[in-house]
Design a protein that fits this description.
two-stranded antiparallel ribbon; 2 domains; 382 residues; globular; 13 helices; mainly alpha
C-alpha cells in the first residue's frame, strides 16, 4: 500500500524505497487469511487451518496478530514524516484512514443486502473494524507519548488489560461467559450487534480487547524503529529473532496465569504471537533484504502491495458465492457449494483435501485480479 495522497496511486518506484521483506510478509499473511476464511466446507478443515476453540494457539490464530504487527512496523515509517509529533494534519490523516477502513468493514458486513435487512441485529465490529481501531488508537498513542516511550505505553496497556480482566471478571475471568470483555460489549454494543459464532453473543473483535490488539500494533512500531536504526545489516535479524524468542517464552510463561487466547486477545497472546511475527520477519528479512533472493516472492508481493483491498475483495467474492444460487426447489444450492461439490470433490475424494482445494481456488482467483493491479502499478490504499 502506498503513502500517497490519493487512495489509488500509480507508481513506477513503489518498491524501490520500501522494505520488501515487510511487503512479502504482509502478502503471506493476507494469502493465509484468504485460505483460512474460505474452505469448501467448514466441517472438513485441516487442524492447522482452524482456530483454537478457546485457550491455545494454532497457526491460524497467528495470522491476524501478524497483520496488526506488520501494520505497526509500517506505521513507524508513515508517522516518521510527522516527526512522531502530534499535529492537526497528522490527526486528520489518521482519523480519515480509521473511518475509511471501518466503513469498508461495515460495507462488507452489510453486503449484499443493504435494504431488506434487520439493522437492529447488524454486527458492528469485525476484522477490518478492529484493524481500523487498533491502527487509530496506536497511532494517536505514538504521537502523544513520543517514540522512545512507546514501550512504556505498550507495557501499561498489556498489564492494565490483565488487571481489568482479572479484577472485574467473574468467577472464571478468562472463560467465555465470565470475562469482562463480554460485559463491556454487552453494555456498549448490545447483544444484537455482537458476533454469534461462539454459541452466545460474544465478539472476538470486541471493544475492550481492542486495547491489547493495539499493543500488537505498538510492538510492530517498536520493531519498525529497530529496523530503521540498524538498516539492512545482520544486526537487524539477529535482534529481531532474539527479541522474538524472548517474547515467545515470556508469552508462554505469562500464559500460565493469563492464558494465551485469541478471542480475548490476552496479553500473553500479544507477546507470544508478536514474538513469532518477529522471528518470521527476521527470516524473510535475511532471505530478501540481505541475501537478495526475491524471485520466489513475486506471488506474495501481489497481495502485499494491495493487502486490505485483496482481503476485502475476497470477502465480497465469498459473499457472492454464498448468496447466489444454482437450480430451483430442492435442487437449489449456492454457487460456492456447487463449485465445491462438482469440481473440488470430483478431483479429491478426501473431504479435507477438496475443501482445501476450494480455498486455494479462491486464493488464485483473488491473486489474478491482484496481479492485474500489480502489473499496472495500481496500489489501492485503504
Amino acid at each position: 500500500m502506498t503513502n500517497g495522497k490519493n487512495s489509488v496511486k500509480h507508481s513506477s518506484s513503489a518498491q524501490t524505497s520500501r522494505l520488501m521483506s515487510l511487503d512479502i510478509f504482509r502478502g503471506i499473511t493476507v494469502a493465509f487469511m484468504i485460505i483460512v476464511n474460505n474452505p469448501g466446507s467448514w466441517g472438513h478443515i485441516y487442524a492447522p487451518l482452524e482456530h483454537s476453540p478457546w485457550h491455545g494457539c494454532t497457526p491460524t490464530d497467528l495470522v491476524f496478530p501478524s497483520f496488526l504487527f506488520i501494520a505497526g512496523v509500517a506505521m513507524y515509517y508513515s508517522l516518521k514524516k510527522f516527526n512522531f509529533e502530534f499535529s492537526r494534519d497528522a490527526l486528520f490523516r489518521i482519523l480519515r484512514r480509521v473511518l475509511l477502513i471501518f466503513a469498508t468493514g461495515t460495507f462488507l458486513t452489510i453486503f449484499p443486502y443493504f435494504i431488506h435487512r434487520d439493522y437492529s441485529n447488524l454486527r458492528i465490529l469485525g476484522v477490518l473494524q478492529r484493524i481500523a481501531l487498533a491502527y487509530g488508537l496506536g497511532a494517536i498513542i505514538i504521537l502523544l507519548v513520543r517514540e522512545k516511550r512507546v514501550w512504556i505505553a505498550t507495557s501499561v496497556i498489556l498489564l492494565g488489560y490483565w488487571a481489568i480482566m482479572y479484577f472485574f471478571g467473574g468467577a472464571d475471568p478468562y472463560s467465555l461467559k465470565d470475562n469482562f470483555a463480554l460485559v463491556v460489549d454487552r453494555a456498549v454494543l448490545g447483544e444484537g450487534h455482537m458476533y454469534k459464532g461462539f454459541g452466545i453473543p460474544f465478539d472476538p473483535e470486541g471493544l475492550l480487547s481492542t486495547l491489547p490488539a493495539t499493543g500488537t500494533v505498538l510492538l510492530g512500531f517498536i520493531v519498525g524503529g529497530l529496523i530503521n536504526k540498524n538498516g539492512r545489516s545482520w544486526k537487524t535479524p539477529i535482534l529481531l529473532s532474539g527479541a522474538g524468542a524472548v517474547l515467545v517464552v515470556a508469552g508462554i510463561i505469562w500464559g500460565l496465569a493469563f492464558p494465551i487466547n485469541k478471542p480475548l486477545w490476552t496479553s500473553s497472546y500479544v507477546l507470544y504471537a508478536g514474538g513469532i511475527a518477529m522471528i518470521i520477519l527476521a527470516i524473510v528479512f535475511i532471505i530478501v533484504d540481505i541475501w537478495d533472493m526475491k524471485k520466489w516472492a513475486g506471488f506474495f508481493m501481489v497481495f502485499g502491495m494491495n493487502a486490505l483491498f485483496t482481503f476485502f475483495l475476497a470477502g465480497i467474492t465469498a459473499k457472492e458465492l454464498a448468496y447466489n444460487y444454482i437450480g430451483t426447489g430442492d435442487d437449489k444450492i449456492t454457487v460456492g457449494t456447487w463449485i465445491y461439490k462438482n469440481v473440488c470433490c470430483n478431483v479429491f475424494s478426501e473431504p479435507k483435501m477438496s475443501s482445501l482445494m476450494f480455498a486455494l481456488m479462491m486464493l488464485t482467483f483473488i491473486w489474478l485480479i491482484g496481479l492485474i493491479l500489480y502489473r499496472k502499478k495500481i496500489f489501492i490504499k485503504l
